Amino acid sequence: MRPFSPAETARLLGIHESYLRQVVTEENGVAPAVKNGRRSYSVEDIHELRKRLDQGTRGNRRYVPHRGPGEHLQVITVMNFKGGSGKTTTAAHLAQHLALHGYRVLAIDLDPQASLSALFGHQPETHVGPNETLYGAIRYDDERRPIAEIVRGTYIPGLHIIPGNLELMEFEHDTPKALLQRRTGDTLFFARIGQAIGQAQNLYDVVVIDCPPQLGYLTLSALTAATAVLITIHPQMLDVMSMSQFLQMTGDLLDEVSRHGASTSYDWMKYLITRFEPSDGPQNQMVAFLRSIFGEHVLIHPMLKSTAISDAGLTNQTIFEVERQQFTRSTYDRAVEAVTNVNTEIEAQIKKAWGRAV
């Protein structure tokens, strides 16, 4: 993880840069690194500063915004039926944004292609072994493991991950057999992810699930475990038509599983416009069309198409990780602003679900 400038650090902590200098001076603890005359802070420094700042606020969660009594775990499924909509990029940036702002976050890679895992440095072919994906915690046989045994730390304090690989497809193959051979007391497929997450719910504020681009048992189980749904949509006609079919099939299947006891009520459900080009006339028309249909369910801020974000992905990095010097200043700042606007809007939905002032 790259170091952060004093201005970036102050924004992440929600304080003025002058107050940051004062806090560092008074505490004589966390000192910025100095290179070529420029000060910077590591993610560990920011995490420590956040804890120290919160000690003087009498636990009002201003700087350490962990959920309190009566605030339920937020489980956000990021999904789309069509590949290339920016689903994994959205999930990665959302998880990192929340962790950098002091939340305890668990990212779950539910996609057998495991792109989210690769973004966090876990290559599915070499770094993720048997029974080390979420499949290990939701499988039907005696080899099922507690979720705590498969959670991994990351290079960002407060952010953990459960990686994925092709092993996740085993759940799609096992479920039909389990339905035929079901024993009394067995948990049905749609409740297994929620049951696994429940084992660790007191350790996190938000769970971000990157769903596979298909409507299988994994996706249905994730939707049943979710408290919120974020659907990514590229504003082109073929993508919108595909999303329409996906939503209709999803609705029919959720109605069916709800008749068997599944929960399908959500705190919020939002559509995120991704890979948006403001200068593209047809895209603007499509966005206006989507807003006319879905209204306030479409997030106000779109995720802009950016060479900075796409180039960062080529080296398995997010915009929070790449150095600003790799791009022109305007390109980098525009990408960071777009990502921050989207994730701040989603963070507001989380706070609203908890009953906090936004």
Automatic annotation (TrEMBL):
<dbReference type="InterPro" id="IPR025669">
    <property type="entry name" value="AAA_dom"/>
</dbReference>
<dbReference type="InterPro" id="IPR017818">
    <property type="entry name" value="Plasmid_partition_RepA"/>
</dbReference>
<protein>
    <submittedName>
        <fullName>Chromosome partitioning protein ParA</fullName>
    </submittedName>
</protein>
<dbReference type="InterPro" id="IPR027417">
    <property type="entry name" value="P-loop_NTPase"/>
</dbReference>
<feature type="domain" description="AAA">
    <location>
        <begin position="74"/>
        <end position="253"/>
    </location>
</feature>
<dbReference type="InterPro" id="IPR050678">
    <property type="entry name" value="DNA_Partitioning_ATPase"/>
</dbReference>
<dbReference type="Pfam" id="PF13614">
    <property type="entry name" value="AAA_31"/>
</dbReference>
